[in-house]
Each structure stands twice: as C-alpha cells, then as structure tokens.
Amino acid sequence: MKILIDKYGRKIDYLRISVTDRCNLRCIYCIPQFGVLQTREEDMLSIKEIVSFVKVASSHGIKKIKITGGEPLLRKDIVSLVSCIKEIDSITDISMTTNGVLLKKYASDLKKAGLKKLNISLDSLCSDKYKEITKIGKLKDVLTGIETAMELEFPQVKVNTVIIRDINFDEILDFVRFSTETGITVKFIEYMPTKNSLDGYAKKFVSADEMRFLCSEAYSLLPAVVDGNGPAKYYVIPGTNGTIGFISPLSCKFCSDCNRIRLTSDGRLLSCLYAQECVDIKDSLRKGPDIDEVTKLLYRAIVSKPASHSLTVEDKQMDFCSMMRIGG
C-alpha cells in the first residue's frame, strides 16, 4: 500500500468527511442567527461518491475515518454509509462526531453497521444554558443519546466541550465530575475564532492551560494515553473512572503532528481546517469515477498542506458557513 506523505514529512492517514452542512441545532458560536445558505441537495456527494473516494484514499494510506457534519445523523442514509465504509478492508477505524440529539434513534443501527467510536458535542450540563447555547436543543435528548450509547457498549464514547468564558466556563468542574461519575472521557476544546465570532472574542477565549490549571486545583491529574485520532492531551483522575483531555488549536498548535485531510459534503478536499484553498473532486467522482484523476487531486491536496495555520486569538479568518461545511 502507498503512503501519503506531505512535503513536511507528515504521514496522512486520517480523513474527516462532512456528510452534510445541515444541523438541527443553532449553536451561538457555530451558526449565525440570521441564517446561512445551505448546499443544494444535488450538489452534495452521494454515498456512492463518498465511498468511491474513500476507496481511492484508503489505497494510498488513509486508514481512519471520522464522519462529521453539520449534524451527520440528519442524513437518512447515514447508516448505509457507515456500513459501506466498514466493508473497505484497509479502513481500521470509523468514528463520528454528533450533537447526540438523534443518537437514541440511530445508535443501535450505527453500531451494527460498524461504527466504533462516538464523539458527542455537549457544551452545558444545565438545561436552561444548553437551550441558550443551542437555541432549540433539549439537554435531555443528548443525555438520553449518551445513555443509549453506553448501554450498547460502544467501544468508545467521548464528550466534546467548547469552553467560552462567561458562557460555560463555570461548568468546567461539572464536566470533570460528569466524567468521574460516568467514566466518559470529556475533551475540553479552545473556542475557535470565525469572522462572525461572538462580540469580544479575545475576552471570551479560554486557553487549555487555564482549563487544566482549574482542574488540577480541584483534582489530581495524571498524564494518560487514550486511543484516538485527535491531538488531545489526556489526564486520568486517580481513584475514579474519570478521564479528561484538552485540545489547544490556538494556544499550543499541534500542526507539526497533523495527520488529517478533510472532505466537505459538496466534494471539496481541504488539507487544513483553515486552508485558504481547496481541491474540488466532485466532478471527477461523478464521472465514474476516474480513479487516476481522483488520485491526482488527492495528491494535489496533500501537496498543498501548509506547515501550520497562522491563526491567532486576534484573527477571525473563517466564516460560519465554512466551519459548518468542513465539520471542525
């Protein structure tokens, strides 16, 4: 099997696939309240087209797949997609990031189809605050989804929590307790800037170091290794089943170890979350696909992968629509 190596010597073996830019929540830091122009149905990649690309990518070293959105469970064919990817022998890991609202409905079928890992986005454990953040979400739906996943004994369930000062900063230790009580790993993520970030973004930013310091004042933290595809630094809490992680895309960039590329729902390859350029592969996939042409486009995306993103707390380069379509 060939191996994808970018010009900085990084081995690329991880593909994140955004299967839709639609979502059933309206989180304040993700979707602008005035609405967005969504991708037309006919412009979205079909299951067949996605699987065709995964087959090409897997023959060149891609082994791990993360399905994202928007909200991936809004795609009615999502279970079939997981099942088709599972049939590709060289794919060793299939995971999904979801807001969990529809998880109770789909969890059993997803597990049977071959989904191994779940990352569930949850930014508050308070019903009122969760509603404030998501605008239309109900906390009980997500908690029921998490409970269902645990009952089904998914190999791995993690919670992703974006921390924003003056919004959910005061819940950090509540999430740590949630981890100790449930055994679910909680990952704290730095709030990323966009063109339409909340007013006063810099004042709302909380670094991973500050989060970790707060946690260490209340709990003993021991560094740990946790299976996963991402850059989180993990810690276990002795005497409990709790594990927490911290992801620091701004305060301590992990670009030198980045092993991923991204495919959007409308067929664009991005080598970096904040890439200014993309490689459009939709037409090539719809031609049959033309495997040689798709392969060339894949390598073009790898070659374009930057050494590092240049984003800082003061920057606001990405717009909401881009973040929704790329899937974070």
Automatic annotation (TrEMBL):
The keyword 4Fe-4S applies. Its EC number is 4.1.99.22. GO terms for biological process: Mo-molybdopterin cofactor biosynthetic process. It comes from the Bacteria. S-adenosyl-L-methionine binds at Y29, G70, S121, M192. Pathway: Cofactor biosynthesis; molybdopterin biosynthesis. It catalyses: GTP + AH2 + S-adenosyl-L-methionine = (8S)-3',8-cyclo-7,8-dihydroguanosine 5'-triphosphate + 5'-deoxyadenosine + L-methionine + A + H(+). HAMAP family: MoaA_B (MF_01225_B). This is GTP 3',8-cyclase. It comes from Ruminiclostridium cellulolyticum (strain ATCC 35319 / DSM 5812 / JCM 6584 / H10) (Clostridium cellulolyticum).
